[in-house]
Every structure is written in C-alpha cells, then in structure tokens.
Design brief:
The complex is a heterodimer of chains A (88) and B (269). By secondary structure, chain A is of the alpha+beta class. Chain A contains two helices and five strands, in the order H-E-E-E-E-E-H. Chain B is globular, with a radius of gyration of 18 Å. Classes of the chains: A alpha+beta (88), B alpha/beta (269). Chain A: It holds the Pfam family Trm112p.
Chain lengths: 88, 269
C-alpha cells in the first residue's frame, strides 16, 4: 500500500484521506461519503445530506445532517424540510 | 423500574418518555464532561482503571486492527488499546512489515457528545498520543453508526450502554459493523446480589455518590441520574440474552467486584 494514502489528515480543511473514506459512511443510508473542501463537510450523495466537520471531528450523528437541497430554497422552508426528514 | 417493552423509564418517581431520554443524557454528559475522569476515580476509588485494563486485555488487540470504541468520549479505552500495541511494537524487532501493520491500525473513538470528545482529544495530547494517526475521533450515534458493514475487528462500549435509549438497536449496529470473527465487549455497571454487600453498595450508591457529585462537580442531579440508571439496567443474564438475540455467539459475562461491574462479550461468527 502506498505510504501517502496512510497519512491521516485530521485537521479541518486538510482533506479527507482515502483510508478514512473507506471506513466512514453515512449513518442514515450507510452509503459512502464525499468530502467537500469548500464547505468542510461530508456529503452523503445517496440521500442528499451533508454532515459538518467541527474542530477536525466529523459530526456523523443523524441529527447533525443537513439536507443539501434546502440551501437553494427560501430560509423558512429549511426548518420544515429538516423536521419532516427527521420525523420519518 | 424499567419497562423494557414500552421503553419508558423512571427517574426517581418521575416517568420519562424515550424521546426525552437522549436529551437528558446529553445534558448530563455535557455537565459532567470536564469532571468526568476525576469523578470516576473518586467514585470507584480508582478501580475503574483496573476494570478498563481488564476489558482491553480481554480484547487482545493486534497491530493493524480496525477497532471501534463506542461512547468512548474521554478516550480511556482507546488509549489503553494504543498503548498496548505501542508497547508490543517497541519490544519487537523492528521490521518493515510490522511497521506497515502498525500504520494500518485504526481506533475510532465514537461518542454522541462533542464535549466528551474534546476532553478526549486534550487528554490524548497530555498522554503523548496527540500525533498518533491511529486515533480517530468521530461524533456518532451508537444506534445509527456511521461505519460500513463487516468493517471492524473489535467493538467496545465501556459505561455507555446504560445511557442509550434503545439497547437492541445498539446491539444490532454493533453486530452489523463487526467483521466475521469480530468481538463485542461491553463493560458496564451491573447488579450485585451478594447478601450484605448488596445493602452496603445500595447505601453507597444512593447516599454517598450524589453527595460527592454535589461537592466535587457541583451537580447532584447528574450523579443521582447515574445511580438510578444503574439500577434500571437489565440484569447480567437478561443483558446476555439480548446480546445473543442480536446474533452474537459464545455470549459470556464476567462479574467484577461481586457484580458492581460486568464485562459481557460475544463473537460474530
């Protein structure tokens, strides 16, 4: 295995290395996550939810998930969308 | 008393619906985080350290293992696993194959409470493990884990399972993420049936512990919650049957200090 891929980058903004992406998945869909450098978050493409990374710690509790589509919608709909998602 | 079937439980004489439980538990651990380790030392007269040592020795960590420590917030179990592996490494002849294996070791410390994880990160630094790339801190929910099926060689949960709302979900998730041949280990406060000792232990729990919590941590309620949660937790036998119901084989338990704590284990075949 290439040594470089084993280096674990824990600090926020330094990236989500290969070995971690092989182990961590979305807590809701159990599908792979994709790191988004611009938002410093982990995206679950399977269900369109993003999870934040705070102080280098991925926050992968279901309640931390934010629906991505909500960003394109007016603010008042965000809370309704998220609460209806969480009530499913 | 706990009603395991309708998932309501009682704090003192007050009934708490399950949707309230995780909020209450969250508050308890946010309040206790900074004093957590000190209170553990005081309440158990330092014995919790031996109990955790025993848990890790039963685990038999090996270099290159993928391990998940759930509700591991302040890092006690994870540090012990790493230190066990590091001491083996320094005694063995240096060999490039071994080096590669050690680099593959991953210990995920999973906790639902970020304050507990932050305390853990600080303690890792104090212990000289801050730069260890094997230690990975993740905020996660034991009832809905963020790991792939069949990905972990070991799973530990120390003093965490009595705080979850749905024990069966936690056990099911533990089973899911473990590899075939993987081991489940749970260290938890349990039930004492030894005559006389039981009465002494009850007195200690209900009269002494909350008072110490008040003096040391300024928080009587959280420690009152603690002692009640211990009494509500299923007995050793009942918990063992729940572990078996989740699919684990070779389910066993070992009582320590007459049942004050028990270590339950199971194997995923």
């Amino acid at each position: 295995m290439v040594r470089a891929s084993l280096m674990l980058l824990k600090d926020a903004g330094r990236g989500f290395c290969n070995s971690l992406s092989q182990m961590l998945v979305c807590p809701l869909s159990k599908q792979p996550l994709r790191y988004s450098e611009e938002t410093n978050s982990l995206i679950s493409d399977a269900i369109g939810v993003s999870f934040p990374i705070k102080d280098g710690i991925p926050c992968l509790v279901p309640m931390d998930g934010k629906i991505i589509e909500a960003d394109d919608m007016p603010k008042t709909d965000d809370a309704a969308d998220l609460s209806s998602k969480n009530n499913q | 008393m706990l009603c395991q079937f309708c998932h309501t439980f009682f704090s003192g004489f007050k009934e708490i619906p399950e949707e309230e439980k995780s909020r209450m538990v969250g508050n308890v651990f946010s309040n206790v985080a900074s004093n957590y380790d000190l209170m553990n030392d005081l309440m158990s007269a330092g014995l919790h350290r031996l109990w955790k040592d025993r848990l890790v020795s039963k685990l038999n960590p090996f270099p290159g293992m993928k391990h998940l420590d759930v509700a591991g917030g302040t890092g006690d179990v994870a540090f012990r696993i790493l230190e066990t592996l590091n001491s083996v490494k320094s005694r063995a002849t240096q060999d490039s194959l071994d080096d590669n294996l050690h680099e593959e070791t991953q210990i995920f410390v999973c906790d639902i409470n970020p304050k507990m994880l932050n305390v853990g990160q600080k303690r890792a630094l104090e212990r000289g493990l801050g730069e260890d790339k094997s230690l990975i801190w993740v905020e996660g929910d034991a009832e809905a884990l963020n790991y792939k099926d069949n990905s972990m060689d070991g799973y530990t949960i120390a003093f965490g399972i009595r705080n979850v709302t749905h024990i069966e979900k936690v056990l099911a998730e533990a089973y899911r993420v473990l590899k075939r041949g993987g081991r489940f280990l749970c260290l938890e406060l349990s039930h004492v049936e030894v005559p006389v000792f039981k009465e002494l232990y009850d007195y200690y729990s209900f009269s002494i512990i909350p008072a110490v919590g008040e003096v040391v941590a300024g928080d009587r309620d959280s420690y009152q919650y603690l002692v009640e949660s211990i009494r509500r937790f299923p007995s050793q036998e009942t918990f063992a049957s729940m572990i078996a119901a989740a699919g684990f084989q070779k389910v066993e338990y070992e009582n320590l200090v007459g049942g004050v704590v028990a270590i339950h284990s199971g194997l995923k075949i």
